[in-house]
From TrEMBL:
Residues 45-101 form the 4Fe-4S Mo/W bis-MGD-type domain. The lineage of its organism: Bacteria, Bacillati, Actinomycetota, Actinomycetes, Propionibacteriales. Residues 785-846 are annotated as: Disordered. It comes from Nocardioides luteus. It holds the Pfam family Molybdopterin. This is Molybdopterin oxidoreductase. Its cofactor is Mo-bis(molybdopterin guanine dinucleotide); [4Fe-4S] cluster. InterPro entries: Asp_de-COase-like_dom_sf, CT_Nitrate-R-NapA-like, MoPterin_dinucl-bd_dom, Mopterin_OxRdtase, Mopterin_OxRdtase_4Fe-4S_dom, Prok_molybdopt-oxidoreductase.
Length: 846
């Protein structure tokens, strides 16, 4: 069956062996596997079905179990998402954390300033006591919930019902606000509702692929491998990269005859307006399709008119000819796939710039057909479910909080008074929730599966809010994180593989993740914890029965599916039984589409009808809302909106004191605040400590060479880390945001002598996009000064966008090649499984 197995080090060889193929053919299957070095494959007792929880790609995976422990993973060959492949995080980072010696195993409560162990009754008792007192004294608005993009669908839905129908608080959001709020907002503005139009199979059919502020080679490595298998095959697509760093995407753009546009940090909108204007200028427009399926053409043309290539070049610091070239690639290809992520979402005009990507596709009628797709990416593995289920404040099922009949549908499903369900104002976004907690108007803040002390902007402020007496803080996590250390009550949670539930990836594909092992000590699933709270609070419905009518994950799933039937996010054809099949399935899954749906909007009909849509929309520049009356007057009737906005400068521009632009992001080897990847020795050694990247010119001007200790300062704070002279554009500084105060005990390879001063978010700003309310982690101003000479290279990896720009003259500073991952096996199958929805399978034709 197989054509041989390759054993390799997937720290050094991030993407594994290539399986090149040509346009319109199925992506070959390759099965990647990693087992703990002391485990033989023959000793694995069980393989348990799941999907990887370390990024939004959602690769299908089986978990290896031995002696009641998770000991490795294997990609699922039959899964339509990954065709068997896994990346370095999935391989080395999926299971190691679970067996770490420092898991939370018992609840903790604060006594005399210290956190001490206690039992569940005491810990939950304290929460319930505070909760009841606050409800009596101040009402439901005293409660805030800040959750995650890493829990399961069943957990979000349960929490959403508790918050909306049990308590009645609008103060509920996820870290999805920091992550993919813009994805949802952009879909709503253009198409009327959230929901990814495109599909991963667009990679097999596209003629060009545009990546906007998306470092896919580091953040969705398996998806990038899928692209590499096209760009290294016959008739490769051209790659266009929009990123101020020379990432691996930029290198691939150079290889394929595409373009690398490196806009000045914070100027995306000017660039997008320039591309849009070029489409008008050259009449690269599908007039018939646009007339039939869109609204707003004339207004858009007017908005982009001033953005000539020369004008854009001046704002963005790019070559006008390169802009023209990129626009021509878009204008002359029949099928372009676009992907968008944090370089756009975490900038100040996030929604406007992401909507501009939709505009390009709509103008060319490039949506809903193979190869012509948009992937407004997610980042976290379960961010999509938070958005769907409403633990991010939206109403479950992409319902419109401003539409009384949508509220009524939920009131009936839950058997509660519609007035209980908060819908008198937009849901409170995370940044606002923290402001209310700061002021003490929120007196109970419940944080689950996120580490805001490291991941939210302006860290000093967040620590102050969490550590103060004005608000009672509950933290539910696997570990005693930087956030948990500041809490009043800490609840030990069961993690991935220790509980059952479902989650949905970027292209709407739903996977079931089965419980493989028992959680440690007294840790409980987040679902059980939320149910325990609901029971203790005694929430009931109008009939006097318990508000939450389910006890198990499967029952929660069925309850969720039951309220999705008449909504775009239709789960009615899904069940646990069905999800135990060979592959995850993309929604909508219903009677009409029993195997799921590969791409949305094939018929050019969008969910924009006034009575059906999820929002009436906003002004993209100011965030001002469009009213129901205004929306109705436009008669959208299934047409998509073309919406534009002029470019406006970022909140903080460089100044004399802070002459450089500060931007932040990721490395391939760590996930977020490293609670999982920091506990994998293979991954931690590859990127053991923080650094900043400077261009050669900016480094030289400051007498800085590779590995020197530098102080990076913004008006909000400072860090001291080592410098990598790297591939970032002149005038900009890039810092990875993974490194908080926590240092892994296994750290070999050298951490930081003073871990209090390395956290990228000490420098970022408390400002957000006016529409999506996503904070702008990617634009601020800073100064960099040399503190002292280093005694070796910086700890930045060499295999990625962080690679050094050139060999340092001083041999001691020469970075060592990043390598050293335990042996993984990789097997290319010579018979590709049948992927039922894949339009490239021969029997389906093209
Ligand atoms: N290895 C790894 N993978 C991950 C994660 C992780 O932590 N580690 N996290 C997951 C999650 S939750 C997310 S949200 C995704 C994020 O995935 P990405 O968005 O791909 O990652 P980032 O590094 O945050 O940012 C992407 C790029 O934006 C560029 N950028 C910075 N400023 C600007 C700008 O002004 N304009 C433009 N055009 N680009 C700019 C940066 O140079 C960077 O290369 O990754 C997911 N996958
Ligand atoms: N400067 C800067 N800051 C950023 C970003 C950036 O690019 N730059 N990116 C932002 C983005 S996109 C994101 S997504 C955020 C991520 O930021 P966070 O959400 O804070 O990052 P994580 O480290 O993933 O935190 C998840 C926590 O949940 C815990 N956990 C994992 N599984 C479970 C579970 O099943 N149950 C419970 N109860 N706990 C669990 C983990 O131990 C961990 O502590 O960071 C944001 N912050
Ligand atoms: S690409 Fe993402 S989902 Fe797939 S193995 Fe890597 S981290 Fe996991
Ligand atoms: Mo994210």
């Amino acid at each position: 069956m197989d054509t041989g197995t390759v054993v390799s080090d997937r720290i050094a060889d991030v993407y594994g062996t290539r399986t090149p193929h040509s346009r319109g053919t199925v992506w070959p299957a390759r099965v990647d596997q990693f087992l703990d070095p002391d485990v033989d494959e023959a000793d694995v007792e069980r393989w348990v079905q799941s999907a990887c929880l370390l990024c939004s790609n959602g690769c299908g995976v089986d978990i290896a179990v031995k002696d009641g422990r998770m000991v490795g993973v294997r990609g699922r060959a039959t899964d339509m998402v990954n065709h068997g492949r896994l990346g370095p995080k999935g391989l080395y980072g999926s299971t190691r954390w679970a067996n770490a010696g420092d898991r939370l195993t018992r609840p903790l409560v604060r006594e005399g300033g210290r956190l001490v162990e206690t039992d569940w009754e005491t810990a939950m008792g304290r929460i319930v006591e505070r909760s009841k007192a606050l409800l009596e004294e101040k009402g439901p608005l005293s409660h805030g919930f800040y959750t995650s993009g890493q829990l399961f669908l069943e957990e979000y839905y349960t929490l959403a019902v508790i918050g909306k129908a049990g308590l009645g608080t609008p103060h509920m959001d996820g870290n999805t606000r920091l992550c993919t709020a813009t994805s949802a907002a952009a879909f709503k503005e253009s198409f009327g509702a959230d929901g990814q139009p495109g599909s991963y199979t667009d990679i097999e059919h596209c003629e060009a692929v545009f990546l906007y502020g998306h470092n896919m080679p580091e953040t969705q490595t398996v998806l990038w491998a899928r692209i590499l298998d096209r760009t290294r095959g016959e008739d490769p697509p051209k790659v266009v990269c929009v990123d101020p760093r020379r990432t691996l995407v930029a290198l691939e753009a150079e290889r394929t005859g595409g373009v690398h546009l490196a806009p000045r940090v914070g100027t995306n909108m000017a660039l997008m307006n320039g591309l849009t204007r070029e489409l008008f200028e050259h009449d690269w427009i599908d007039h018939e399709w646009v007339a039939e399926h869109t609204l707003g053409l004339d207004d858009l043309r007017e908005v982009v008119e001033p953005y000539t290539p020369e004008h854009v070049a001046e704002i963005c610091g790019i070559d006008p000819e390169e802009l023209r070239r990129a626009a021509r690639i878009f204008g002359e290809s029949e099928a372009v796939l676009s992907t968008v992520l944090q370089g756009f979402y975490q900038s100040h005009q996030a929604t406007a710039a992401s909507v501009a990507v939709h505009n390009l596709h709509l103008l060319r009628g490039m949506i809903g057909r193979p190869g012509a797709g948009v992937l407004q990416m997610n980042g976290q593995p379960t961010a999509q479910n938070n958005r769907e289920c409403g633990a991010d404040g939206d109403l479950p099922g992409f319902r419109n909080w401003d539409n009384p009949s949508h509220v009524q549908q939920l009131a009936e499903a839950w058997d509660v008074d519609p007035m209980t369900i908060p819908h008198w104002a937009p849901p409170t976004h995370a940044m606002q929730i923290f402001s209310y907690a700061e002021a003490g108007t929120i007196g109970l803040l419940w944080i689950s599966a996120t580490n805001p002390a490291v991941s939210m902007p302006e860290s000093a402020r967040i620590r102050r809010i969490l550590g103060g007496d004005q608000c009672f803080v509950v933290v539910q996590d696997l570990f005693l994180t930087e956030t948990a250390e500041l809490a009043d009550v800490v609840l030990p949670a069961a993690g991935w593989g220790e509980k059952t539930g479902c989650f949905t990836n970027v292209n709407r594909t739903v996977h079931l993740s089965e419980k493989a092992v028992e959680p440690p000590g007294e840790a409980r699933s987040d679902l059980d914890i939320f149910l325990m709270y609901a029971d203790a609070m005694g929430f009931t419905n109008n009939s006097g029965r318990p508000l939450i009518g389910w006890r198990t994950a499967e029952e929660a799933f069925d309850a969720w599916a039951a309220i999705t039937g008449d909504r775009p996010v239709d789960y009615t054809g899904l069940s646990y039984a069905k999800l135990r099949g060979p592959t995850g399935l993309p929604w909508p899954v219903n009677e009409q589409h029993p195997d799921g749906t590969d791409r949305l909007y094939a018929d050019g009909v969008f969910p924009t009808d006034t009575d059906y849509c999820e929002t009436f929309g906003h002004d993209l520049l100011t965030g001002g809302t469009v009213t129901e009356q205004e929306h109705r007057a436009m008669h959208p009737a299934g047409r998509a909106f073309l919406k534009g906005a002029p470019y406006s400068p970022a909140h903080e521009e460089p100044s004399e004191a802070y002459p450089l632009l500060y931007t932040t992001g990721r490395t391939v080897y760590h996930f977020h605040t490293r609670t999982k990847t920091g506990r994998s020795r293979d991954l931690n050694r590859a990127a053991p400590d923080a650094w900043v990247e400077l261009s050669a010119r900016d480094a030289e001007a400051r007498d800085i060479v590779e590995g020197d200790w530098v102080r990076v300062e913004s008006p909000r704070g400072a860090i001291e880390v080592r410098a990598r002279v790297g591939n970032v554009m002149d005038g900009a500084v890039f810092a990875p945001f993974h490194y908080g105060r926590w240092e892994p005990s296994e750290a070999d390879g050298g951490g930081h002598p003073d871990a209090e001063h390395r956290q990228a978010n000490e420098l970022t700003m408390t400002v957000w996009d006016p529409v999506s309310k996503q904070p702008t982690f990617k634009t601020a101003a800073c100064q960099v000064t040399k503190v002292r000479s280093g005694d070796g290279p910086s700890p930045a990896p060499t295999t990625t966008a962080s690679a050094p720009v050139r060999e340092p003259a001083d041999g001691r500073r020469r970075p060592r090649r990043t390598e050293g991952g335990g042996p993984t096996s990789s097997t290319v199958l010579d018979e590709t499984p049948d992927y039922p929805l894949d339009p490239s399978t021969p029997e389906r034709g093209r």
